[in-house]
Design brief:
Blueprint: E1 2-5, H1 15-19, E2 24-26, E3 32-34, H2 45-54, E4 60-63
Antiparallel strand pairs: 1-4, 2-3
The protein binds iron/sulfur cluster.
The site of iron/sulfur cluster (SF4) has 14 residues, from α1.
Length: 65
C-alpha cells in the first residue's frame, strides 16, 4: 500500500502528519507530502486510512500496489 497527496488540493492543515508521521511530512510550501515513494509500512494500514478519511480536502489517496 502507498499513499499519494495531491499538492493542489492540500491546504496544509497538517492533520495527516499527526496521524501518519512515518509516511507524511511537511514540504517547503507548507503543505504535506509523502516520504520516499509513499509506501506505508506493514501494520500502519489503518492509520493510512485514518489519514485519508481525516483530510478535509480529500487530498490523500491510497494506491494499492
Ligand atoms: S490533512 Fe489534507 S489538507 Fe491537511 S495537510 Fe494533510 S493532506 Fe493537506
Amino acid at each position: 500500500m502507498k499513499i499519494r497527496i495531491d499538492n493542489k488540493l492540500c491546504q496544509g492543515l497538517n492533520r495527516c502528519r499527526a496521524v501518519l508521521p512515518e509516511v507524511i511530512s511537511g514540504s517547503d510550501d507548507g503543505k504535506s507530502g509523502v516520504t520516499g515513494d509513499g509506501t506505508v509500512p506493514p501494520g500502519l494500514e489503518d492509520d493510512a486510512q485514518d489519514a485519508v478519511d481525516g483530510c478535509p480536502f480529500k487530498a490523500i489517496s491510497i494506491v494499492q500496489d
